[in-house]
Amino acid sequence: MYRLITQDGQAKRGEFHTVHGVIQTPVFMNVGTAAAIKGAVSTMDLQKIGTQVELSNTYHLHVRPGDKVVKQLGGLHKFMVWDKPILTDSGGFQVFSLAGLRKIKEEGVYFQSHIDGRRIFMGPEESMQIQSNLASTIAMAFDECPPHPATREYMQNSVDRTTRWLERCIKEMKRLNELPDTINKKQMLFGINQGGTFADIRIEHAKRISEMDLDGYALGGLAVGESHEEMYDIIEKTVPYLPLEKPTYLMGVGTPANILEAVERGVDFFDCVYPSRNGRHGHAYTNHGKMNLLNARYELDDRPMEEGCQCPVCQTYSRAYIRHLLKAKEMLGLRMLVTHNLYFYNKMMEEIRDAIEHHRFKEYKKAKLEGMAQGE
């Protein structure tokens, strides 16, 4: 259940009640694709850095270790020792990114595993069954993530199929949630809005799926090659046609600037690999822009990555030490950067929630963007 606490313009401040706890929104979900954050960050670390929701990947966990294995071990929460909410994506994006290895039909998609090449079939029912075995808090509907750019005709046909698949997802989840051996009988379902950069297709699709009264709604198929301006325009035009009293999730986005712009347009949920991926490449997010810790200027710099930062890394270690670890190819350096970056994102979301509550989000956004634009 979603409770809208207040709005500042279109920006929403809410609470989403789930069987695994309450999510304060807007929220950034920390991405743990294969039930682990890349960069050796544990669930104990996630607790310390203010993580509210962990996101795992249906396709990857289905391929390895197998969703039935996870179910036998008590579900994803027990498996990875995490008691807060988990969102699992449907596997759709991964399946469709394997462009050369897949074949789309009405019943679902036939594709080859990227690990061992074995043939796999996934459709709406299979995706729901896998996510039910994983026992996540929130399951995502199985959709087609169309290529960018795509013709109008392709996009319309794709969106129509996604709607038909959503109806099948709803039916299958209802069935699964009523089975005696289902671990999480209160699993929630989010539908996904598609339509590329065709605003009218997006709007019509938003209207159609809003009628289905789901637990939440996502904007999919963005940040796949279109410009930031195009993405913001689509968000601005589509969000008003999604239910205000339900959470809105922008999938796979983005940079701190992307998040601030999308919050201003009414988005509640975010996820992105940037903080962990950039950390693994030696880059740290700070309020004064992105830092490349591999730079020679940090060799003798005994200051923390960001002065005033309360993350466990900045409270303890210097730029010089972290740079040394990166240069020596020690995994600890990557772990420190990923920890800091996730803390930075989680802290930013906390600041965003506070700014919306006090009706000063525009001022906050302006100051945050100006600070981050400074760079090194």
From TrEMBL:
The active site is at D89 (proton acceptor), D271 (nucleophile). This is Queuine tRNA-ribosyltransferase. The keyword Disulfide bond does not apply. The gene is tgt. GO terms for molecular function: metal ion binding; tRNA-guanosine(34) queuine transglycosylase activity. Residues 10-371 form the tRNA-guanine(15) transglycosylase-like domain. GO terms for cellular component: cytosol. Pathway: tRNA modification; tRNA-queuosine biosynthesis. It catalyses: 7-aminomethyl-7-carbaguanine + guanosine(34) in tRNA = 7-aminomethyl-7-carbaguanosine(34) in tRNA + guanine. The keyword Protein transport does not apply. Homodimer. Within each dimer, one monomer is responsible for RNA recognition and catalysis, while the other monomer binds to the replacement base PreQ1. Binds 1 zinc ion per subunit. HAMAP family: Q_tRNA_Tgt (MF_00168). Residues 252-258 are annotated as: RNA binding. Its EC number is 2.4.2.29. Catalyzes the base-exchange of a guanine (G) residue with the queuine precursor 7-aminomethyl-7-deazaguanine (PreQ1) at position 34 (anticodon wobble position) in tRNAs with GU(N) anticodons (tRNA-Asp, -Asn, -His and -Tyr). Catalysis occurs through a double-displacement mechanism. The nucleophile active site attacks the C1' of nucleotide 34 to detach the guanine base from the RNA, forming a covalent enzyme-RNA intermediate. The proton acceptor active site deprotonates the incoming PreQ1, allowing a nucleophilic attack on the C1' of the ribose to form the product. Substrate binds at D89, S90, G91, G92, F93, D143, Q194, G221. It comes from [Clostridium] polysaccharolyticum. Signal peptide: none annotated.
